[in-house]
Design a protein that fits this description.
Length: 283
């Protein structure tokens, strides 16, 4: 079982800039909790995501001396991947590949074909640098833009990623269109079809819909979940009424009910929740 904490996703759309020292202290608190992976920042254009323009400075201030948590940084193109790959502290690069042509252009200013070409190059870069590429399949559970969507289309993209050698794929409910039926149907098809791939669930939900969608993914065999303390975040590139990330607190309680042993430091979790409240105060 892998729990991925996503403060980057939680912070990236906030209008007021969070000071670098505040971000760093919050991330250091999260590193002490014992999550599998921390989605901590992004190497993208500061014009696109000004909130995370200080990712390199934040990285320099992280205390990695006593944590098992891996660091993941989001990139939007090869240039960002090349920059991120130069940092030995970063274990994983994450790239958003959309099954929606409209959203791919909106999110990374590429066609899907161009984005797939970047995925191939970034995977090779990661292999050379000893890192793992995590591909987020955005709009995996539905498309609000009128583009074609079907589970078969998502499976087709997963097949292309598997052929490239990608090992971790996270279907993403970018604007919260997923339902338990679509979530379970997709994971139940993907997981048996591609045994070499590790599938994760990156779900954006509301406080009343999270449990049904998380349970659907879990029942279909998913054992990698993304969340954010407090349920903050969403995708600012969607430019729609947004739902937030699944609250990590809810994920922890759900997984405990299933008998999963996460091995988290609950004292450190409490401290991180206190810092989270300060970071997101007023948002």
């Amino acid at each position: 079982m892998k729990l991925i904490e996503c403060p980057r996703d939680a912070m990236q759309g906030l209008p007021g800039f969070i000071p670098t020292a505040t971000k760093t202290a919050y991330l250091n608190a999260l590193l002490r909790v014992g999550f599998d992976t921390l989605d901590f920042g992004s190497f993208v254009s500061p014009k696109a995501i000004p909130q995370l323009r200080d990712t390199a400075e934040v990285l320099a201030g992280l205390d990695l001396s006593a944590t098992k948590t891996k660091l993941l940084a989001i990139v939007a193109n090869r240039r960002g991947a090349e920059t991120a790959a130069q940092h030995p502290e970063i274990h994983c690069l994450g790239f958003p590949l959309s099954v929606s042509e409209t959203f791919q252009r909106r999110n990374t200013h590429q066609t899907r074909a161009e984005a797939l070409a970047d995925v191939a190059a970034m995977h090779n870069l990661c292999e050379q640098a000893g890192k793992t590429l995590v591909v987020y399949l955005s709009m995996a559970f539905g498309n609000p833009y009128g583009d074609p969507w079907s589970p078969a289309l998502v499976v087709e993209y997963a097949a292309q990623l598997a052929a490239l050698g990608v090992r971790v794929v996270a279907p993403s409910d970018t604007v919260g269109t997923g339902s338990p039926a679509t979530v379970v149907a997709l994971f139940a098809e993907l997981i048996p079809a591609f045994p070499a791939l590790e599938f994760g669930a990156h779900l954006h939900t509301t406080p009343t819909t999270w449990r049904a969608n998380v349970a659907a993914a879990y029942q279909a065999g998913c054992r990698r979940f993304d969340g954010a303390l407090g349920g903050h975040g969403g995708c600012p590139m969607a430019a729609d009424a947004l739902t937030g990330n699944v609250a990590t607190e809810n994920l922890i309680s759900f997984l405990a009910e299933q008998g999963e042993v996460l091995g988290l430091n609950l004292g450190a979790l409490g401290e991180a929740r206190e810092r989270s409240a300060a970071v997101f105060a007023g948002h």
